[in-house]
Specification:
The chain is an alpha+beta fold. The chain has one domain (3-93): GMP Synthetase, Chain A, domain 3 (2-Layer Sandwich). It contains 5 helices and 3 strands, in the order αβαβααβα. The chain has helices at 3-19, 37-40, 60-70, 72-77, 89-93, and strands spanning 23-28, 44-51, 79-87. A 3-stranded mixed beta sheet has the order 1-2-3. The longest helix has 17 residues, at 3-19. The N and C termini lie far apart (37 Å).
């Protein structure tokens, strides 16, 4: 397994566990940022889509804070940039 794949897998596992997520999609976009300062540091650029009931009743900022809290360790060591979409199961269904 490559280092990038294992980073993506760790991100997915952390989000599933911390947010009791029904669905987590992780896309590693690091290759799109070659030469960028964050890429030179060895940290990656990721996009995530997380579906969790834990986001119900929360603002977008509150939901994003939960994601950042779940990935606090990875933000220090593995993630330079993180784009995210946070949805409840009801939002996905509609």
């Amino acid at each position: 397994m490559s280092a990038d794949a294992s980073r993506s897998d760790r991100i997915e596992a952390k989000l599933r566990a911390a947010l009791e997520a029904e669905s987590v999609e992780v896309v590693d976009e690091t290759h799109l940022h070659a030469g960028h300062a964050g890429a030179r540091s060895g940290k990656g650029h990721f996009r995530v889509r997380v579906v969790s009931e834990r986001f119900a009743g929360l603002s977008r900022i509150q939901s994003q804070r939960l994601v950042f809290a779940a990935l606090a360790e990875e933000m220090e060591s593995d993630i330079h940039a993180l784009a995210m979409q946070t949805l409840t199961p009801d939002e996905v269904a509609s």
